[in-house]
Amino acid sequence: MIWTDVTDIAIALEEAHPGEDNVHLRFTDLHAWVMALPGFTGKADESNEKILEAIQMAWIDERE
């Protein structure tokens, strides 16, 4: 996975952090959690606020 694999990342985050508040989270935490996902190969400096926001929205949708 890389940063643009938003849906795959959201699914993996829900599996890894099912009890976390994915609405009121800090992007610094989200960034770290994505970087720690198994199979994630993106580089830390390749993300930005727009990508993190898209991941967060996909994660919220995944949970619903």
How are the SSEs ordered, and which strands pair?
Layout: H1 6-16, H2 27-35, H3 49-63
Helix pairs in contact: 1-3
The number of distinct β-strands equals 0
Spell the H/E element sequence.
HHH
Structural class determined from secondary elements: mainly alpha
Distance between the termini: 23 Å
- Uncertain segments are none
% residues in beta strands: under 5%
Tell the overall outline: globular
Give the CATH architecture.
Answer: Orthogonal Bundle
Overall mean pLDDT stands at 97
Q: Give the total of domains.
A: 1
H/I helix tally: 3
Radius of gyration in whole Å, from Cα? 10 Å
Q: How helical, in percent, are the residues?
A: 40-55%
Described by strand count, sense and barrel closure, the largest sheet is: none
What's the level 1 CATH class? Answer: Mainly Alpha
Return the CATH topology. Answer: Arc Repressor Mutant, subunit A
What would CATH call the homologous superfamily? IscX-like
Describe the structure.
The longest helix is centred in the C-terminal third of the chain and has 15 residues, at 49-63. The protein is mainly alpha-helical and 64 residues long. It is globular, with a radius of gyration of 10 Å. It has one domain (6-63): Arc Repressor Mutant, subunit A (Orthogonal Bundle), CATH 1.10.10. 55% of the residues lie in helices and 0% in strands. It has three helices and no strands.
